[in-house]
Amino acid sequence: MTESYQRLKAGLTALRLDAMHDGLDRAIDRVNDGELSFVDALSLLVQAQVRASETKRTEALIAAAHFPAKKTFGGFDFGFQPELNREEVLDLANLRFMEDGSNVLFVGMPGVGKTHLAIATGMEACRAGKSVCFVTCSALLADLRRAKAENRLDYRLKHYVSFSLLIVDEVGYLPLDTEAGNLIFELVARRYERKSTIITTNKPFGKWGEMFGDPMVANAMLDRLLHHSRVFTIKGPSFRTKDYAAEAQGVPMPSADGIGNR
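Now predict its structure.
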């Protein structure tokens, strides 16, 4: 028994089945006490290992997504944005939009919660085992421009196309030139009807031609983004304004998740 027990423990360690290793002694005791059959005990150990593996996988996907902070739908203050349809937003957590490569666009002024909702959706995708990439528009363009200069553009575009869900944050916050418009269009075109993309922007669609400096490119991009999409226009006040007002009155504002409701 002792030799077999040690071999079993060593084998579980070698296979990195930590949850089964940690629960083994308790399982053996319950079998010896007649609480569980051998098969039931083994089943519980396997279930514990599956849960642990799923947790590790989710944590790895969240880390690889490079979210600036962890955000959840539960942490979003819908009461502060009463015009936003709570049920439609929460339906994003079901990830049905990803089944046919549909896109999600959050439109609104800075501080209304666009980034928060984009991250919350991305977190749900990670929990479902989907690969996610979060990147600001400025960082994305810097990467693509650099890749183009080094003749690696196709490689980097394939990198961004590979993710099940791509979140491009803050489109329109900085001026964009014609090259920028062409680079983003190329990425959107490659993902079109294949993979889902989430865009957050402070610019209404009518100003995208001005934003990209080329109405034709802007229209072609919007045609692909909006063809299969869910658009959430947030017209409420800025969460930051609310926080500043509270701080001015001496009310401490918690920031457990790192960033505000952008």
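Strands lie at 103-108, 132-136, 165-171, 196-201, 229-234.
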